[in-house]
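Next up, a specimen:

>
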Amino acid sequence: MRNFLRALAEQRWDDHRYYHHSRINQSLHLISAISFVITYVLLFTQPVAAALFGWIFAMCIRQVGHFFFRAQGL
């Protein structure tokens, strides 16, 4: 279990170090975060729309930054 937690911590650090220093990726994360706030507002009136919006839009925008704007040479 200790090795698993150590590997997880290393992956989280690599994620931060390689992906979160890109301005484009940071902007996409901001858009995603704002989208999640909208999702929480929708949750009280339209839960199905909130779930679809949160997973289809907000999560996809967040992952696009990791997929397309990753550090070169990795």
User: Anything to note?
Assistant: The mean pLDDT is 85. DSSP finds three helices and no strands in the chain. The helical segments are 2-19, 23-43, 47-68.
